[in-house]
Write a structure and sequence with these properties.
This protein is mostly helical. Helices cover 41% and strands 7% of the residues. The strands form two sheets. Strands 1-2 form a two-stranded parallel sheet. A two-stranded antiparallel ribbon has the order 3-4. Strand 3 and strand 4 form a beta hairpin. The longest helix has 11 residues. The chain is globular. The N terminus is likely disordered. The structure holds a DNA duplex (13 and 13 nucleotides).
Length: 117
DNA sequence: GAGGTGACGACCC
DNA sequence: TGGGTCGCCACCT
């Protein structure tokens, strides 16, 4: 951990972290939604990569609120088995078999919620 | 300085 | 309709 590019607000990662922190409690979003909000839906993979490094971020990034486009907790393996689901259920999000129930209902789109007026 | 990696998404067969 | 493959782009080694 020499530089990690942290502290550089213009970093793509930093931008991702900022958006994820804005996700309200009991809501979830997708990697693609964040990537699209940042202007590059093709960079959706980078969002996931950013989450992988989010554990080193302070304060912690609620990465458990970020799932793939169909509501599957693909990152739970990195969080720890059951941890991601437990955190979501604690916030009122029903999770079954690593899938968010009523995903569309809990979906939080930054491009809409954070739309520039 | 260059190549490889990756928690996804969209398109094609 | 379902499964498989490709692309994309910033960070890490």
């Amino acid at each position: 951990m020499k530089q990690k590019a942290t502290g550089c607000k213009s970093s793509f990662f930093a931008d991702v972290y900022e958006v994820v922190r804005l996700i309200p409690k009991g809501r979830v979003t997708s990697y693609g939604a964040i990537a699209r909000y940042l202007g590059s839906v093709q960079s959706s993979r980078m969002v996931g990569y950013a989450m992988n490094s989010s554990f080193a971020e302070t304060p912690g990034v609620p990465a458990h609120r970020v799932v793939n486009r169909v509501g599957v907790l693909t990152g739970k393996h990195y969080f720890g088995a059951g941890v991601m689901q437990k955190l979501l259920e604690k916030e009122g999000v029903k999770v079954k078999r690593d899938c968010v129930l009523n995903f569309k209902k809990h979906f939080w789109d930054p491009s809409i919620e954070l739309q520039i007026t």
